[in-house]
Design a protein that fits this description.
Number of helices: 13
Strand content: under 5%
Distance between the termini: 49 Å
Order of helices and strands: HHEEHHHHHHHHHHH
Number of strands: 2
Length: about 280
């Protein structure tokens, strides 16, 4: 019996490893094809560097104008707010670089029937949609955001320890995942609705609001909405709180729970949407 169990576990591990290698090869192919397409027209490759760099400067000017006469927000001084702005900008830049433009096309592919091509391939359609439109032009925004984070960490006078950095990176990755699944969830609604324009406009408004206003400034019903129902308020707030040493175990557990719940919701909506999808040829 023990030998049979060992064989089954070994077979399962080999299957998982072979699948991981398969998707790794597919990812390399998608990235190579993307760069080849971008380099056909050099302006398509270099243009985003200028656009994203200009956008970053405009965001900093807006931040300076808003907080020029504000000494603190809650327990956060200007240094912590700079750290917050850099963190939110990094989350946005990472999404723009890796997956945003692929996920953005989901509604059009559903309406046009182009989703058929993704469902007919021997690879997860969501995996391909996520990585097929990588945008290297947003890497400049990633670099700028990192500089702002480093500057904000120094300006906030927080203790830069290995534990603080590790905790910050953990929450940064977790919130980047939340950012991603929220993008997928919103656009997966296209399986059930003719148009999701209003929902996407709501997403833009929420991101714009939470970019300017951290979660620690929200109380009562607003905290429930932006922490639990529309969790954009925690995306940059929790990483910054972890860096500053202000993150309590209760808030941390709530954040992990929210991410887990939305991950399950997104997976269910996507899978049911795929089954609900009517082929253009049907």
């Amino acid at each position: 019996m023990k030998k049979d169990e060992i064989k089954r576990k070994s077979a399962a591990n080999n299957t998982w490893l072979s699948k991981a290698r398969k998707y790794q090869r597919i990812l390399k192919v998608l990235v190579r094809l993307r760069f080849q397409n971008l380099m056909v027209f050099r302006l398509d490759f270099l243009g985003p560097f200028f656009v994203d760099g200009s956008l970053f400067i405009i965001q900093l000017l807006i931040f300076k104008a808003i907080y020029a006469n504000v000494d603190s927000i809650g327990s956060w001084g200007s240094g912590a707010m700079i750290l917050y702005i850099g963190t939110f900008s990094l989350l946005n830049a990472a999404s723009m670089t890796i997956c945003f433009f692929g996920i953005l096309g989901i509604p059009y592919k559903i309406r046009s029937g182009e989703m058929d091509l993704y469902l007919s391939k021997p690879v997860s359609p969501l995996f391909r949609l996520t990585f097929e439109c990588i945008n290297p032009g947003s890497l400049l925004l990633v670099v700028f955001s990192i500089f702002i984070i480093v500057y904000g960490a120094k300006a906030s006078n927080c203790r830069i320890t290995v534990h603080a950095v590790a905790s910050y990176l953990f929450w940064l990755v977790l919130m980047a995942f939340l950012y991603y699944i929220m993008e997928v969830l919103i656009r997966s609604v296209s399986f059930y609705l003719i148009s999701t324009t209003r929902i996407e406009q709501l997403e833009e408004a929420l991101l714009s609001l939470c970019f300017k206003l951290p979660g620690i400034a929200m109380y009562g019903i607003y905290k429930v909405i932006f922490y639990c129902i529309l969790p954009y308020g925690i995306m940059a707030t929790l990483p910054v709180q972890s860096m500053l040493g202000e993150l309590t175990w209760k808030t941390a557990l709530q954040g992990i729970f929210v991410v887990a719940v939305f991950a399950v919701i997104t997976a269910l909506v996507w899978k049911k949407g795929i089954r609900h999808y009517n082929s253009a040829g049907s």
